[in-house]
Amino acid sequence: FANVGNETKGRIMAMLNIQEGSLPVRYLGLPLLESKPSHMDCKILVDKLMRRTTSWLSNSLSFGGRLQLLKSVLFSIQVFWCTTFILPAAVLKKCDSILRSFLWHGLGNSKRAGKVAWRKVCRPESVGGLGIKESRTNFWTAPITGNCSWGWRNILASRKFMHRRILYEVNDGSSFSLWFDPWYQGETIAGLYGQRVILDSGLPRTVKVCSVISEDRWDWPLNSADLMEISNVTSLIPLSTGCDAIQLLKKGSKFTIQEAWKSITPQCQDVPWCKVVWFPQRIPKHSFCVWLSFMQGHRTLDKLSRIGVVSSSACVFGCGQDESLDHLFFACPYTATV
């Protein structure tokens, strides 16, 4: 009930035979909230991820099996929440911890370290990762101070990312603000040249781009050096009688979450062994083992001796050499016969 007196509220409840509830309540698997979700509001998500990982504990899953479940089930649960809410940073950190722990140890709450750094695991397969998306990599992390709402602060923080990925395609110029939309080389004219250029032009602040277009040609007032420069730059922008359009990522492309993710993911060089590991007919657990080898992730005795876990790094097959990754797979006489 919103702004309803107790007497009116009582009559409505008696007539409809209903009871008064309180938020949060569950709807379509998500909580209905009055404000941004808190850490406690998202406990449902964390508990659900933990229950799933616990239910698979007795299945003795291989690394390949865990990776498949992580991508298809655990991450999908998290994405369902993220499409509705901007989750708190602490919740995203906890979700990543559960996914990381499940991948390496089959548990959702293990404190042991993984074999490969999580930031490397979250890279695309083509550059040496496993193609997992890290939850805390998103548009909404840069803080904005002030008295604006939590949602608006996050939207403002995303602008520096979006300006580099949105292309304003000017045709008839009737849709875009002349001064305040980033149609001019990905920037706003007011942002690049300041308020003075608006005064020099003699045009109102509210005009559209079409105000400087005449007979399908640019027609700028040339009252200052800045306006002359703008005129020279815009003369290279072709015009047409069609409608203005906003393209995401690049001209003519269709927006997808996958393409957006690629655009904000740090670019790394492709690894030459990607197709050797992740070919279509692969056996998942074998591919995972080979991937660990390329990433130097196996806990061989030479590694364990360096950190003081074992006292000797001698090969356990008695060949008289130190156990290392290269030795086990390529130089050990015993493994060569297996």
TrEMBL record:
Q: Which Pfam families match?
A: zf-RVT (PF13966)
Q: Where does the Reverse transcriptase zinc-binding domain lie?
A: 255-337
Domain of life, source organism: Eukaryota
Q: Which InterPro entries match?
A: RVT-Znf (IPR026960)
Please report the name of this protein according to its UniProt entry. Zf-RVT domain-containing protein
Q: Which organism is it from?
A: Cephalotus follicularis
